[in-house]
Design brief:
This protein is mainly alpha-helical and about 100 residues long. Helices cover about 80% and strands about 0% of the residues.
């Protein structure tokens, strides 16, 4: 029983560490999306367009092609589509001057 608990604790600790890395990387991506929003606002003002379906489609296709499993391409696509959507939402609500 102790061996099982030790093995599980070790794996769970690794999962926790990966979760923190994912968290940090998603927030890094969001910060870059905000910088992109700032540039678009700088050059286009209120007419800045944050939704580029062709770019999003390309990103999702590249990620699906990069996928090595065990999650299938549909699971990966759903995860990244949500990340992209949240970053776009963040861009839409920026004033262009946030850091």
């Amino acid at each position: 029983m102790q061996d099982e608990e030790n093995e599980l604790a070790s794996l769970r600790e690794r999962i926790d560490n990966i979760d923190y890395l994912i968290h940090d990387l998603v927030n890094d991506r969001a910060k870059l999306a905000l910088k992109i929003a700032q540039i678009k606002i700088k050059y286009h003002g209120e007419k800045a367009n944050f939704h580029r379906p062709e770019r999003e489609k390309l990103i999702l296709q590249q990620i699906k092609n990069y996928n090595k499993g065990p999650l299938d391409e549909f699971a990966i696509e759903r995860i990244f589509a949500m990340i992209i959507q949240e970053c776009r939402e963040l861009q839409t609500h920026t004033d262009g001057f946030s850091s």
